């Protein structure tokens, strides 16, 4: 491959068709309650880590949903696993397991 | 009814007596195109078109790259108009879509702000001692070819039909953004239904492909490609278009803008070398033609005189499909009759 | 005094002690520095006698099993103690016969085969004692057979499932004593040297049959013994010796560290797979999950086939740990199984570096815990109580809370948990306070056992109990009927059973739950399990609620925000934290 | 016939009792009219009673409380037309004064029993028995107990009130914080006790969205300077005029709608409430101090509904009474002669309740005509 001194910029829009959602399906298998989220934001509002940083667990799992693993980066490491999010979730999503599972799946990258 | 609505999307295109202004970059990248245009107008259609020896840039690239201020651009453009006035013409025909955009923009500005017109007249007078009239009609050469597309069709030797299958060729048409996106009413079909190239393709037997990113910019974008670090954005736009048109398997791309022809052609090489990806089935890339080259080809002009060999993606396979004969040995014969050295072959893109 | 048939026994015995020796050495060598230091510190403190005493009590008498179920205890005791006595008395018998001369080990074991002239009064007595002991062991074996057929006999709901290897071993163990009885009876038939039982049985045999069968029977006995001994170190029966070693080290203050060590291996091998841990496990009892209990988990770890879900799908309610007769630190072993080395990163919480402490000299540091933000009733009541006794306080996590780190630790994030502990430790130390009161049992357990804080750590129930004892809190009792729910982390986790009850007794009428104290049922919201669905949690909660309300209390009291939330989420408004009940009974 | 077997010997058991303890059977034998017992005199029960009586049937209307239509009377204005709730209630009560309608106030019903194929007996708490040909359950709803969501601070912080309490303030035409000042900022929170798996209520209570919009508008009318925020997860403006009200609330009253659920509330030193939510549309956590936090309480099956549905064996989802099917037999149960109307089935708006009561009346008349 030749080097031109620049590369093709990646689009900022979500290009879903080209993405493999295999990792999402595996997450849904690991923690089925994930599918129930209706994005009320209760988790982010109560999040212990979110009181100190811009960590937004709802955003994190939406990024994961669309396979934006790069943008997720090290975000999940900010989580303290205290479980408040799980406790407030009106849809009964098991967020703690979701976070650990996401970290495991992302670790494979 | 529909015809009446369609009339609202037409523009006025002068019949004859054109003042031609050449493009800065086309002369180096597609040197045969402008010559072919003049030939078609003079020999096939018998029109009066003036090609002035004193013409110069319109500053379009500098203007859109924020290098040249608007006042300067207006004065430079005024000098071009004064050349036209001096030569006794009223219909201005800029070869370049960027120039076309700049002229329409300036003329519209003068209409809204007469003070600027006066200032420009003053500046031109002070600097060069020249005076000018505003052109009656500014049209792009593609408008003229569009206007006379049926006349040309009758003189053409070939049609846009695949001679092996008998089906119309599938053509992607791409219109320069500055043709109809800045002042929609100055384009055929406005910005909503740009028809200038599609009209030619349909008239000459081809089939226009309507693909999702049809109206997307080619990626030229002035500031994007001028700075090396930004070229990735330019390239990404072009790639987006290619990704979108690829499933339709187009036979070639037809453009009316120098930037678009250049970038859609050359970026195919860059993408191939970067990612080993081409957008036709066989790895040769999709040929990109200007409307003059296409008209010339169909009228039976020599492809090497039209300058097709200077494109990145080569057109032999397309000519084979249409049935246009060409001499392989004369591909790189110079004007002097001597063979020029062959260009270096790309690693991934086949030629 | 030798006969070739003793060879299997000899091989087995040598293999047994050889392998045990190697294993023990390895384990002891791989203890970590902290454990060795503690062992050394305690070594000179005269722990030897108590250690031996407990080894005897547990190893032979099976005191804790007996406490759980007398029948089960009897079974284990009859096998262990009976066998032990058979060996000891057999040895004495042989020594007496040889008048104190040294003799080979097989001589005592196969004494009846080698010594035929047993007509003195003392030898008759020995023969009768040995027969009595044999009967004692055989009763135990009989009970074990019955238990394997029907667990209910032993007061167990379920018995642990076996693999083939374990089954072979079990059958060889079961065979040993009937074979001994059979062989001795045959010899008694031929030489009249038996005790009351063997002689009685021997006389039933035809001497011809006896003379033919004698040697094969003794050989079979020797093979059964040899096979059992040789395979024993690789099986669950290894627990017989390991338990003794474990008790020894435990008496010397050795505990599980953060990472698995040789001590962990001892604990793994010390599990006798009695299955008591299945008995009260809420996962099994309420949800019917019967693959994750310690007996299976430890087996899988030992066989290196443990799946993640077996380690993960546990509430960490510590019910099994409190029931375990061997006292294995199951929670730690499970934590090792959850170790997330590959995910457990460093420097995750740098964003906490900016947080500064508050100068709280003379104040109590109050740490509500993350969850208390969702139960403002507890926090407000604690503030009221502090105000009522004029105690100044600094609520460390009033606006934002740093987690104590225990939830991470429970899930195997050792580094990350340590990082949070460091941050909190710094804040607490820099506050210069002397007392830390927390409302969350999870934090309490963490501060108490996982942190090394130079301050007094109290759960609010302890704190309130202390205030009451000092007579500082003025309260007016009412005749409300209240049942108390022991949170897992506070009760079984930290042993705080009495303080909350003492507080409640001062205020209200305490009515008992069906199971309480160390048998209290987890509310289901325990943070120890990340895999449980909400539906399962709710089932656990409903079971726990039913257990609590068996005597129709007006209110249920608890001392943990999680438990409170769990019950509150059901259609019950009548759950309160002890702090709230105290605040309501305060005399203004 | 099956129903008969369910409670055999119902009568015989009484005869074993001493006379004084025996239930008094009050026989309604004015004429040979069919008798319909309606349990619960809310809008549904009252409307059905009126409609059935107009068809010349005898109606016995039982109400556990001393007042009729308590829930309705607690309201101030009705959405979407802002008409007066009192007027509506008074009108209905006036229409109840019909010779064929007998209203039994303070008469809680213990259970209803089918004695013969076409005969029902209604047992009151004080051991009276009434005979009826058909029974209509209109036992209604009660609001969610906000204390179950402790994190929202109801019952702990004075600034946290329920939608009912706010409605009451409207009725008294005086809105104030505990300190007596008029609130500078009021925050409404939707879906308290509905759409929440943690408290076991997965369903949408249907009316809270528009109620919050209505109350917000009323609030702005009384205190134009108050800032009003509505925190929602989805705004379900399903009824006639609802969407228009929402638009008016935005445009005319400048009520601000924030998409996010409030998950924590804490007291502030000056007696206000600090809430934590996320503005999910920009993806940032949000903290806000407010003078009043209004919890829009969802509907749950009332005690009476739960108890009667259980004793009749018609328990549907979440303790509500279950109808035969939601389309053609929504007023029927699987027991002949036992009908349902109103919010004892599921959350409904007042408009729907009245329509449902009329349809129940029609079904009952049809049923009676076949006897």
Count of structural domains of chain A = 1
Extended strand count of chain A: 0
* CATH top level label of chain A: Mainly Alpha
Oligomer: heterotetramer
Radius of gyration of chain A: 15 Å
Number of helical regions of chain A: 6
Q: What's the β-strand tally of chain B?
A: 8
Radius of gyration of chain B: 20 Å
Q: How much of the sequence of chain B is in beta strands?
A: 5-15%
Chain pair sharing the greatest interface? A-C, 25 and 36 residues
Helix content of chain B: 40-55%
Fraction of residues in helix of chain A: 40-55%
Uncertain spans of chain A: none
CATH topology of chain A: Fumarate Reductase Iron-sulfur Protein, Chain B, domain 2
What's the SSE blueprint?
The complex is a heterotetramer of chains A (109), B (351), C (588) and D (371).
Chain B: H1 2-7, E1 18-21, H2 26-29, H3 31-44, E2 49-51, H4 60-64, H5 70-87, E3 91-94, H6 97-112, H7 114-128, E4 137-138, H8 141-147, H9 149-155, E5 170-174, H10 177-180, H11 196-203, E6 207-208, H12 223-226, H13 231-245, E7 252-255, H14 258-275, E8 288-290, H15 291-299, H16 303-306, H17 316-322
Parallel strand pairs in B: 1-2, 1-3, 3-4, 5-6, 5-7, 7-8
Chain C: H1 7-29, H2 33-43, H3 48-59, H4 63-68, H5 70-97, H6 105-109, H7 111-114, H8 121-149, H9 164-191, H10 196-204, H11 207-231, H12 239-251, H13 262-270, H14 276-279, H15 282-285, H16 294-302, H17 308-312, H18 319-323, H19 330-337, E1 364-367, H20 376-388, E2 393-395, H21 406-410, H22 414-430, E3 435-438, H23 441-450, E4 456-459, H24 460-469, E5 481-484, H25 498-507, E6 509-511, H26 534-548, E7 555-558, H27 561-569, E8 575-577, H28 578-585
Parallel strand pairs in C: 1-2, 1-3, 3-4, 5-6, 5-7, 7-8
Helix pairs in contact in C: 1-11, 1-13, 3-12, 5-8, 8-9, 9-10, 9-11, 12-13, 16-19, 20-28, 24-25, 25-28
Chain D: H1 2-6, H2 10-16, E1 24-26, E2 35-39, H3 43-54, E3 58-62, H4 70-73, E4 77-78, E5 83-84, H5 85-96, E6 101-104, E7 109-116, E8 119-124, E9 128-132, E10 134-137, E11 141-143, E12 160-162, H6 163-171, E13 185-192, H7 208-222, E14 227-232, H8 242-251, E15 256-259, E16 264-267, E17 273-279, E18 284-290, E19 292-297, E20 299-301, H9 303-312, E21 338-340, H10 350-369
Parallel strand pairs in D: 1-9, 2-3, 2-10, 3-6, 10-21, 12-19, 13-14, 13-19, 14-15
Antiparallel strand pairs in D: 4-5, 7-8, 8-9, 11-20, 16-17, 17-18
3D structure, described in words:
The complex is a heterotetramer of chains A (109), B (351), C (588) and D (371). Chain A is an all-alpha fold and 109 residues long. Chain A has helices at residues 22-30, 42-46, 57-65, 69-72, 84-88, 95-107. The radius of gyration of chain A is 15 Å and the shape is globular. The model of chain A has no long low-confidence stretch (mean pLDDT 90). By secondary structure, chain B is α/β, with parallel strands linked by helices. Chain B folds into 2 domains: 15-139, Glutathione S-transferase Yfyf (Class Pi), Chain A, domain 2; 145-330, Rossmann fold (3-Layer(aba) Sandwich), CATH 3.40.50.11810. In chain B, strands 2-1-3-4 form a 4-stranded parallel sheet, sandwiched between helices. In chain B, strands 6-5-7-8 form a 4-stranded parallel sheet, with helices on both faces. Chain B is globular, with a radius of gyration of 20 Å. Chain B starts with a helix and ends in a 29-residue tail after the last helix. The mean pLDDT of chain B is 92. By secondary structure, chain C is mainly alpha-helical. In chain C, 57% of the residues lie in helices and 5% in strands. In chain C, strand 1, helix 20 (376-388) and strand 2 form a beta-alpha-beta unit. The longest helix of chain C has 29 residues, at 121-149. Chain D is of the alpha/beta class. Chain D folds into 2 domains: 2-140 and 302-369, FAD/NAD(P)-binding domain; 146-299, FAD/NAD(P)-binding domain. Chain D has helices at 2-6, 10-16, 43-54, 70-73, 85-96, 163-171, 208-222, 242-251, 303-312, 350-369, and strands at residues 24-26, 35-39, 58-62, 77-78, 83-84, 101-104, 109-116, 119-124, 128-132, 134-137, 141-143, 160-162, 185-192, 227-232, 256-259, 264-267, 273-279, 284-290, 292-297, 299-301, 338-340. The longest helix of chain D is centred in the last third of the chain and has 20 residues, at 350-369. The interface between A and B is medium-sized, with 10 and 17 residues.
């Amino acid at each position: 491959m030749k080097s031109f001194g620049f590369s093709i910029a990646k689009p900022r829009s979500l290009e879903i068709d080209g993405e493999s959602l295999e990792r999402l399906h595996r997450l849904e298998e690991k923690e089925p309650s994930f599918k129930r989220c209706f994005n009320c934001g209760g988790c982010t509002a109560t999040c212990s880590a979110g009181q100190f940083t811009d960590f937004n667990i709802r955003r994190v799992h939406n990024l994961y949903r669309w396979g934006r693993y790069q943008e997720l980066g090290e975000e999940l490491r900010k989580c303290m696993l205290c479980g408040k999010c799980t406790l407030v979730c009106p849809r009964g999503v098991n967020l703690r397991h979701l976070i650990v599972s996401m970290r495991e799946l992302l670790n494979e990258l | 009814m529909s015809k009446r609505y369609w009339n609202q999307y037409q523009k006025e295109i002068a019949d004859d007596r054109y003042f031609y202004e050449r493009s800065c970059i086309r002369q180096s990248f597609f040197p045969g195109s402008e010559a072919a245009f003049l030939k078609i107008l003079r020999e096939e259609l018998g029109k009066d078109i003036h090609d002035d020896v004193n013409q110069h840039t319109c500053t379009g690239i500098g203007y859109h790259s924020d290098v040249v201020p608007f006042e300067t651009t207006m004065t430079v453009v005024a000098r071009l108009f004064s050349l036209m006035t001096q030569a006794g013409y009223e219909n201005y025909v800029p070869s370049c879509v960027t120039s076309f955009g700049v002229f329409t923009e300036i003329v519209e500005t003068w209409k809204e702000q007469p003070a600027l017109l006066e200032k420009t007249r003053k500046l031109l007078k002070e600097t060069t001692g020249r005076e000018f009239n505003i052109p009656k009609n500014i049209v792009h050469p593609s408008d003229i070819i569009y206007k006379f597309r049926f006349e040309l069709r009758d003189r053409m030797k070939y049609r846009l039909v695949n001679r092996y299958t008998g089906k119309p060729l599938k053509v992607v048409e791409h219109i320069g953004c500055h043709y109809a996106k800045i002042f929609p009413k100055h384009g055929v079909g406005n910005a909503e239904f740009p028809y200038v190239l599609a009209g030619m393709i349909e008239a000459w037997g081809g089939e226009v492909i309507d693909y999702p990113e049809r109206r997307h910019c080619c990626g030229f974008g002035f500031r994007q490609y001028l700075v090396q670090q930004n070229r990735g954005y330019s390239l990404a736009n072009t790639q987006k278009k290619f990704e979108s048109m690829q499933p339709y398997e187009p036979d070639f791309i037809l453009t009316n803008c120098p930037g678009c022809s250049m970038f859609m052609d050359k970026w195919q090489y860059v993408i191939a070398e970067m990612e080993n990806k081409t957008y036709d089935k066989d790895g040769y890339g999709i040929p990109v033609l200007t409307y003059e080259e296409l008209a010339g080809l169909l009228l039976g002009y020599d492809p090497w005189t039209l300058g097709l060999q200077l494109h990145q993606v080569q057109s032999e396979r397309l000519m084979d499909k249409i049935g246009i004969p060409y001499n392989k040995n004369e591909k790189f014969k110079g004007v002097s009759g001597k063979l020029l050295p062959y260009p270096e072959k790309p690693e991934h893109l086949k030629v | 005094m030798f006969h070739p048939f003793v060879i299997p026994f000899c091989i087995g015995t040598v293999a047994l002690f050889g392998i045990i020796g190697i294993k023990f050495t390895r384990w002891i060598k791989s203890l970590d520095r902290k454990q060795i230091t503690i062992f050394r510190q305690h070594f000179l403190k005269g722990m030897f006698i108590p250690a031996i005493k407990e080894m005897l009590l547990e190893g032979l008498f099976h005191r804790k099993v007996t406490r759980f179920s007398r029948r089960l205890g009897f079974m284990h005791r009859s096998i262990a103690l009976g066998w032990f006595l058979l060996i000891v008395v057999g040895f004495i018998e042989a020594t007496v016969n040889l008048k104190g001369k040294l003799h080979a080990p097989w001589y005592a074991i196969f004494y009846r085969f080698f010594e035929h002239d047993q007509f003195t009064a003392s030898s008759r007595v020995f023969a009768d004692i040995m027969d009595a002991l044999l009967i004692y062991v055989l009763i135990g074996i009989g009970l074990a057979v019955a238990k394997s057929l029907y667990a209910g006999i032993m007061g167990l709901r379920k018995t642990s499932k076996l693999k083939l290897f374990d089954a072979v071993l079990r059958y060889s163990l079961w065979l040993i004593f009937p074979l001994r009885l059979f062989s001795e009876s045959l010899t008694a038939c031929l030489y009249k040297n038996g005790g009351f039982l063997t002689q009685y049985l021997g006389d039933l045999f035809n001497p011809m049959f006896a003379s033919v069968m004698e040697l094969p029977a003794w050989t079979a006995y020797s093979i059964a013994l040899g096979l059992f001994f040789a395979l024993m170190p690789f099986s669950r029966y290894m627990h017989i010796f390991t338990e003794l070693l474990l008790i020894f080290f435990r008496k010397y203050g050795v505990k599980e560290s953060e990472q698995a060590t040789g001590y962990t291996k001892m604990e793994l091998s010390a599990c006798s797979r009695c299955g008591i841990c299945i008995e009260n496990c809420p996962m099994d009892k309420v949800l019917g999950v019967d693959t994750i209990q310690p007996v299976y988990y430890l087996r899988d770890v030992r066989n290196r086939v443990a799946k993640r879900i077996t380690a993960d799908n546990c509430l960490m309610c510590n019910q099994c740990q409190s029931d375990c007769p061997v006292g294995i630190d199951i929670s730690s072993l499970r934590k090792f199984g959850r170790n997330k080395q590959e995910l457990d990163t460093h420097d995750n919480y740098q964003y906490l570096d900016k947080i500064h402490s508050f100068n709280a000299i003379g104040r109590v540091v109050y740490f509500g815990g993350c969850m208390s933000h969702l139960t403002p009733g507890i926090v407000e009541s604690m503030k009221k109580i502090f105000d009522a006794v004029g105690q100044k306080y600094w609520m460390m996590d009033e606006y934002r809370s740093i987690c104590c780190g225990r939830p991470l630790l429970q899930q195997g994030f050792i580094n990350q948990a340590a990082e949070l502990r460091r941050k909190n430790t710094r804040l607490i130390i820099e506050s210069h306070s002397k007392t830390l009161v927390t409302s969350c049992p999870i934090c309490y357990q963490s501060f108490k056992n996982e942190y090394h804080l130079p301050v007094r750590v109290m759960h609010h129930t302890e704190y309130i109990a202390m205030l009451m004892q000092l007579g500082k809190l003025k309260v007016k009792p009412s005749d409300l009927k209240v049942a108390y729910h022991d949170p897992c982390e506070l009760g079984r986790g930290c042993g705080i059973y009495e303080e909350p009850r003492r507080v409640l007794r001062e205020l209200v009428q305490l009515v008992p739950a069906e199971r309480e104290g160390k048998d209290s049922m987890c509310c289901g919201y325990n943070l120890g399990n990340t895999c449980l669905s909400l539906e399962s949690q709710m089932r656990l909660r409903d079971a726990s609620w039913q257990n609590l309300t068996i005597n129709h209390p007006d209110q249920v009291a608890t001392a943990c925000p999680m438990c409170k939330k769990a019950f509150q989420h059901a259609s019950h408004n009548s759950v309160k934290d002890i702090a709230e009940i105290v605040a309501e009974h305060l005399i203004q | 016939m099956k129903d008969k077997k369910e409670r055999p010997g119902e009568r015989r058991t009484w005869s074993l009792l001493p006379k004084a303890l025996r239930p008094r059977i009050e026989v309604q034998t004015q004429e040979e009219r069919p008798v319909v017992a309606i349990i619960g005199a809310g809008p549904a029960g009252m409307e059905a009673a009126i409609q059935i009586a107009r068809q010349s049937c005898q109606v016995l209307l039982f109400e556990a409380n001393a007042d009729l239509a308590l829930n309705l009377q607690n309201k101030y204005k009705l959405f979407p037309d802002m008409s007066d709730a009192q007027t509506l209630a008074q009108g209905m009560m006036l229409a109840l004064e019909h010779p064929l309608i007998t209203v039994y106030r303070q008469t809680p019903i213990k259970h209803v029993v089918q004695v013969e194929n076409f005969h029902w007996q209604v047992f009151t708490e004080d051991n009276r028995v009434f005979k009826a040909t058909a029974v209509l359950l209109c036992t209604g709803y009660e609001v969610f107990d906000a204390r179950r969501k402790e994190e929202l601070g109801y019952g702990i912080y004075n600034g946290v009130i329920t939608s009912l309490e706010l409605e009451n303030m409207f009725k008294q035409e005086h809105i104030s914080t505990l300190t007596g000042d008029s609130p500078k900022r009021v925050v409404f929170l939707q879906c308290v006790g509905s759409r929440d798996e943690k408290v076991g209520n997965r369903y949408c209570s249907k009316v809270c969205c528009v109620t919050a919009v209505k109350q917000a508008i009323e609030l702005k009318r009384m205190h134009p300077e108050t800032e009003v925020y509505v925190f929602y997860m989805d705004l379900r403006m399903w009824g006639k005029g609802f969407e228009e009200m929402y638009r008016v609330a935005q445009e005319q009253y400048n009520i601000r709608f924030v998409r996010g659920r409030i998950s924590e509330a804490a007291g502030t030193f000056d007696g206000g409430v600090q809430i934590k939510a996320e503005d999910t549309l920009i993806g940032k956590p949000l903290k806000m101090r407010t003078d009043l936090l209004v919890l829009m309480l969802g509907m749950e099956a009332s005690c009476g509904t739960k108890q009667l549905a259980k004793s009749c064996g018609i328990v549907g989802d979440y303790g509500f009474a279950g109808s035969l099917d939601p389309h053609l037999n929504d007023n029927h149960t699987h027991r002949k002669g036992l009908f349902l109307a109103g919010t004892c089935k599921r959350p409904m708006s007042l408009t729907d309740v009245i329509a449902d009561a009329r349809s129940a009346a029609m079904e009952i008349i049809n049923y009676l005509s076949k006897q």
